[in-house]
Amino acid sequence: MSIAAPPISRLTNYINGQWAESGASEWRDVVNPATGEVLASVPLAAAADVNAAVEAAAAAFPEWRRTPPEDRIQPLFKLKMLLEEHIDEIARFITLENGKTFGEAKAEMRRAIENVEVACGIPMMMQGYNLEDVARGIDELMIRQPLGVAAAIVPFNFPGMIAFWYLPYAIATGNTFILKPSERVPLTMRYIYQLLEKTGLPKGVVSLINGGKAAVDALIDHPKVRAISFVGSTPVARYIYARSAEKGKRCQCQGGAKNHVIVLPDADMPMATQIIGDSAFGCAGQRCLAVSVAVTIGEAQRTFRDSIADAASKLRVGNGLEEGVQMGPVITPQSKERIESLIGVGEKQGARVLLDGRGAKIPKYESGNFVKPTILDDVPATSEITDTEIFGPVLSLVHAGDLDEALAFLERSAYGNQASLFTSSGSAARRFRYEAPAGNIGINIGVAAPMAYFPFSGWKNSFFGDLHGQGRDAIEFYTDKKVVVERWAKEHSRKF
Ligand code: NAD
């Protein structure tokens, strides 16, 4: 795998089927987090760029909407093949700009492709329902119609996958779609849009706008944008939800997380260690479903602590494009600083640093933002570190007397993205599934990421809205229901 950076370029937007120079006055460097090299320069879009994209998307909508669903999914079949063919190139861009390992980047793209596959079922999934003779001679039917222009704003941690929770469903249901990727990782979607260009989609059906807050505000405020999807941190999710509601828009906003796993003493400890280790330290802890706090019960306090500390200390940290590297850097120097300072806060508030990843030095990569796996033991159940999303490779260990106490601890969390349990007891598992206060539940699973045909759920401050991304929720989100009640005179039908 080549680890040379691509030549630096000034990124453009994709509007009306063409790559267009941005009119932005402000630009920002896209930086490789493993090396500190500048990869490209990204515009922080001007409102005029957003306006051009929305107008092109609005102009493309009437014809796209009239295109039969069976024809609308043909470009998605092509896209699936192109993504498969180019998965290595895409994964390389993901690793270059995000830092995760090449293997993690490829795994991310598998989940993206899965969403394209599911959206190819739209001719079935988009169907409504009907009933004859709701009154004598009167029939009633419900049909689904696309909304118009839909937009999605996505975060840095999955540069390839998260856009696919939205794009395939939005266009297959007949909407036109605008994506605003994270300004920290815009290269992956640029490459994917180059593939989208080859699928035969009519111009204006998909657009790409690079930018930051100003671009997001312009999208929300534009009267021709009907629906907003967002994934990112909780404060921004809350802001976008409120602003979209004020403008009368349909909106779904996924926010931050603080995910818990409960380890019972009857768990298969080697399996639990491997899976929880992958969850806590995979993608350098920058997954929205990463386990952040492990609550151990009884004897698991000692057995799990010893085994996870041993496994985490052996993880090979480095440039994700190098063979054998198991964990990459965090996204920015500011992020590294914040994570290290939160470890310090944990220590001050009574936690014992069992494994200390601060001040990591990786040979050849002195300018990289590396934090090695860190484990904080005996973390007080109420402390800043148990409430704050760290978004780095830090696992806190909290101990509880029994499952009641552990569940009460989860209940107090402000977030509800994911909760997991490791056990061999069916009744404990059932109780957990029933009571755990989170939208994505794992039983002996560390990253309970729903497959594309299930909604990517999330509760409390991890989600604002009601319809989630993926699966049937996506069809509901991207369509309006229309109910038709019909009566035809008997005399008229007799003529035929
Ligand atoms: P972020 O909130 O900083 O940015 C997300 C997007 O919002 C980016 O496109 C960014 O340009 C835009 N943005 C940033 N500030 C804005 C503002 N003030 N107004 C309008 N738009 C703004 O998030 P991030 O750092 O890119 O991603 C990490 C966060 O995303 C973590 O909190 C993580 O838990 C969360 N996340 C959640 C899920 C989920 O499914 N719940 C999935 C992935 C990531």
UniProtKB/TrEMBL annotation:
Pfam families: Aldedh (PF00171). One of its GO terms (molecular function) is methylmalonate-semialdehyde dehydrogenase (acylating, NAD) activity. Residues 19-484 form the Aldehyde dehydrogenase domain. Its EC number is 1.2.1.27. Keywords: NAD, Oxidoreductase. CDD domains: ALDH_F6_MMSDH (cd07085). One of its GO terms (biological process) is L-valine catabolic process. It is an enzyme of class 1 (oxidoreductase). This is methylmalonate-semialdehyde dehydrogenase (CoA acylating). It comes from Candidatus Sulfotelmatobacter kueseliae.
